[in-house]
Structures are given as C-alpha cells and as structure tokens.
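Changelog-adjacent note: as of this version, every example in the card shows the full chain rather than a window. The one below runs 93 residues end to end.
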Amino acid sequence: MTPEERHMARVASVGCIVCLAILGRSWVPATVHHCFDSSDRSDFLTIPLCYEHHQGANGFHRLGERTFNLRYKTSERRLLGLTLHQMELRRGP
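Full-length structure tokens:
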C-alpha cells in the first residue's frame, strides 16, 4: 500500500466529517472526497464523506460547492481541518 493509500484509508476511517462534526451524529461510513481544484489534486488533501454528503441529493457533487457550503455553514478548508483534528485524536498520545 502506498503512503497515499494509507492516508486515504485513515481519512475514511474517521467516518463522515459532516455527520460527525457538523451535524453531531455518530459514526457513518465514508469514502474520501478530494478537496480543492481537481486539476491539482492531492490524495493527502481529502476528507471523509458518506454517500449522502458526497454524491447523494444533499452531497457536494450534487449541490455544488457554493450551495453545499451554505447549507452546512462550512467549507472544504474547514472540513479538512476538522478531519485532521479527528485523525490526531484517534492517534492518541
């Protein structure tokens, strides 16, 4: 497994960051969403989103970035920070 694949697996293991950190729900399975401009994509700049918040009716790819951010009062940058924080908490001391 490459370092990128290991990182993305760790990101996905956090569970949907919108469900967890924005909506206060419990852990929901997630896949990774690449943040920022897709022409300059990095596997290290990813966040975990469940199907509904990634590709579903209320998802980033269906709503578009602007509407998604307005609906959830967030941004990819904020969600990335929340994801990194959750990963650090899971890593422990």
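Structural remarks: The first helix runs from residue 3 to 13.
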